[in-house]
Every structure is written in structure tokens, then in C-alpha cells.
Write a structure and sequence with these properties.
The protein is mainly α. Helix content is 63%, strand content 10%. It has a two-stranded antiparallel ribbon.
């Protein structure tokens, strides 16, 4: 019995047949650059919105103002957004430099370090 005819034709897999890999590499770098700067912008906006927000609650005749520093989770959230924005800025600048130079990352330890730091937030 042949297990190759289970329902998927070998001709249905999408394959990139172009020989212009520099154009594909440039498009990938531009997409990464756009995503990095979107993360940068959203992280800064989130940190600013949480950091400047306050609420006032009135109990009888007492007024209590609540700020983000009253809740430790919000302090952590502001710090995490700041760190994500800073890392995205550094990686965005790295993308700009690699686009201008046209170089590919050949340093294996640096590539592993970038990959590992990109994966850390998702597994913690």
C-alpha cells in the first residue's frame, strides 16, 4: 500500500521559483523594519498612556487619586513596554544598517543572540 496518495497532490505546495533572491531579501528586511517600528510606536504609546493615567474616586468627602504606581503590575507593564520599545529601536536601526549596506548577517553568534532575544518574551 502506498502512503503517498493520502489526499494531497505533490503539485499543490507553493514554491518560490524566482532566482532574484536579493529582491526577496530586501522585501523581508523592509517588512521586518516596518514591524519593528510598529512595535516601537505601540510600546511607547502604551507606556505613555498607562504612565500618565490617573483616576479620582470620592468616598463621602474624601478624594483618593489612583496612579499607575499604586499597582505593581502596571509598573511592571510600563517597564516591559519600555524595554520592548528600546529593543525594537535597536533592532530597527540594525535593519536600517543592513538595508543600506546590503549585507547579510554572517555572524552566527549574533544571529543566535538576536533570535534568542526575539523568542524570550513568548516563552516567559
Amino acid at each position: 500500500m502506498s502512503y503517498l496518495v493520502v489526499g494531497v497532490s505533490p503539485g499543490t505546495a507553493p514554491v518560490y521559483h524566482s532566482t532574484n533572491l536579493k529582491l526577496l531579501d530586501k522585501r523581508i528586511k523592509i517588512a521586518e523594519l516596518v514591524l519593528r517600528f510598529m512595535i516601537l510606536g505601540l510600546g511607547v504609546v502604551a507606556a505613555i498612556l498607562i504612565g500618565t493615567d490617573s483616576q479620582v474616586k470620592v468616598f463621602f468627602s474624601f478624594e483618593k487619586e489612583a496612579k499607575f504606581t499604586d499597582v505593581k503590575a502596571l509598573v511592571f507593564w510600563v517597564v516591559a513596554n519600555g524595554l520592548a520599545a528600546g529593543y525594537s529601536l535597536i533592532q530597527g536601526l540594525h535593519c536600517v544598517v543592513s538595508l543600506v549596506r546590503g549585507s547579510v548577517l554572517f555572524n552566527k553568534p549574533l544571529a543566535w543572540a538576536i533570535f534568542s532575544v526575539d523568542q524570550v518574551p513568548f516563552y516567559i
